[in-house]
Design a protein that fits this description.
The strands form two sheets. Strands 5-4-3-6-7-8 form a six-stranded mixed beta sheet, sandwiched between helices. It has a four-stranded antiparallel beta sheet with strand order 1-2-10-9. A hairpin with a 5-residue loop joins strand 1 (2-4) and strand 2 (10-15). It has 182 residues and is α/β, with parallel strands linked by helices. The longest helix has 19 residues, at 17-35. The protein is globular. The protein has helices at residues 17-35, 50-57, 110-120, and strands at 2-4, 10-15, 40-46, 64-72, 84-86, 98-106, 126-135, 147-152, 157-158, 174-177. It is 21% helix and 32% strand. It contains three helices and ten strands, in the order E-E-H-E-H-E-E-E-H-E-E-E-E. The protein has one domain: Rossmann fold (3-Layer(aba) Sandwich). The structure holds inosinic acid (IMP) and magnesium ion. Inosinic acid binds next to strand 6, helix 3 and strand 9.
Amino acid sequence: MYLTLDLGTTMKILLTEDELRRGIERIAGEIREYYQGRPLTIVAVLKGSVVLMSDLIRLLDMPLRIEIVRASSYRDSTRPGELKLKLDMLPSELKDREVLLVDDIFDTGYTLAEVLSQLARRHPAGLRSAVLLRKEGRCEVDVEPDFVGFDIPDRFVVGYGLDYQEMYRNLPHVAYLETEDL
Ligand code: IMP
Ligand code: MG
């Protein structure tokens, strides 16, 4: 289905609300299975992971804390730029905590790798990562996320938290933005 939205861009739906829900139920199952009821600290990467976060945590039944970090890569359009991290909301110690980093998408992997290395310095008892989407054939780092919702082709996507120039995060599905719009 093609949709034309407010910025005059054309989109094709990649993952419907139903598909997203089933994918998130599956990762939630894997996360519950892995942690076996142990207390968990989720670290959400703002802003892209807010929608995933709110759906995911309601499917997790272990004792759970939420922390946040902010990452922005100052892409001029869709190309990666310099990564900026804001970690000041994070507790200085994550000792004895099982930490699960949650982000929207794993593209080149630089964001996830950098946030993971910053978190590792705070000595968590365990450190894993979960992403909604992973783009095929793009990884440039030697870490991979532990829990992945969907592997997707290398195309620019928006919705369900993901933005294009700060717009479209509120779409309930994930859609491709047609390349002539980028
Ligand atoms: P990475 O550091 O290259 O893995 O990029 C990760 C970050 O870039 C994500 O957290 C997103 O904010 C952004 N990003 C990468 N690909 C897309 C996309 O297709 N749509 C929207 N944002 C993206
Ligand atoms: Mg972004």
